[in-house]
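Before the break, one more example. Copy the sequence into your notebook; we will annotate it together after we see the structure.
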Amino acid sequence: MSRNYRPIEPPASGPPIRGIIGSSPAMEKVYAITRRVAKSNASVLLLGETGTGKEVIAKAVHQISPRGSGPFVRVNCGALSESLLESELFGHVRGSFTGAIDNRTGRFEAAHTGTVFLDEINSTTQKLQVKLLRVLQEREFERVGDTQTIRVDTRVIAASNRDLLAEVEADRFREDLYYRLNVVPIHLPPLRDRREDIPELISHFLNYYNEANDRYVVHIEQKAMEAMQEYHWPGNVRELQNYIERAVVMAPGDELTCDLLPETVLGQRRPRTTRLREADLETLTYELVQQALSTAGPQEDSLHTKVVNRVERELIAQVLTSCDNVQIKAAARLGINRNTLHKKLKEYSLDGETDAPPV
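Here is what the structure looks like once it is written out:
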């Protein structure tokens, strides 16, 4: 008889990790995966919207790992040009380019025996992705302008606020690098999907900013709490933190009241965003479907077409706006060619767009 293999049991949920707020089921899954992966040297890919706390989780993985006593080095890959980022990551030697007046140690070298956290990894160029792949596979690299190979023992944690698999399919991110990074993915839930954590987060930020500003805002108006519980939080925990700090600083007394919150939180004005978020798209789709259903006759056979057209028109309009009305960028983001986009624009009477960014 052949030997039976026992299925791998899912990681058991554990208590919250120090420094991370929240005890919702969604966060318990994050804690469980974080604790388990921290014991290994595997690469970790943190996925989630902006403001969900990816850096906090990256630090937690490092701190509770065997590398916890080593350095934790963060690099924002989206904040630097390709040449500057290459020098930042791998270092350079004197005279390798204009302005290189001294030798410089890169972040990978500085993170030896510790962890390097590559935030916004989706912002890197194909050229740089080749060098990153080599570091992950061979644990070695050369400084910019040098031929000497440097070997490092550095764990890599990367983060992206975009779907990296979609970036791979669009030929903007190397498939081999994606699989090297995506050994253990950790998906961080948006705040709207763990609303039960909002009171605990508010309490934490109140205590922190009261102490930082020598204030005593310890009460919360019921309507203010209800508004914060119902708000969509497109900026996630970071947005909540910002509004609590503002309220603590501006409060005339010891209570956080509705007048201390922005109009967007109170539902008096829609938040302005320059990027069409996935969650916004879900809400938009639902609203448009409801509108189509409410205006459809009981015997209408073209309801499916009516709903699809309404959603598609609004999606194209919003993507164009987020791309500054540049049709090339909008077509790429929509995953269609320019001819198809032109046809849709004419079909839906969406005109006035341009093929070049405004001067």
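The first strand starts at residue 44 and ends at 47. Residues 1-13, 352-359 have pLDDT under 50 and may be disordered. Try to locate both features in your own notes.
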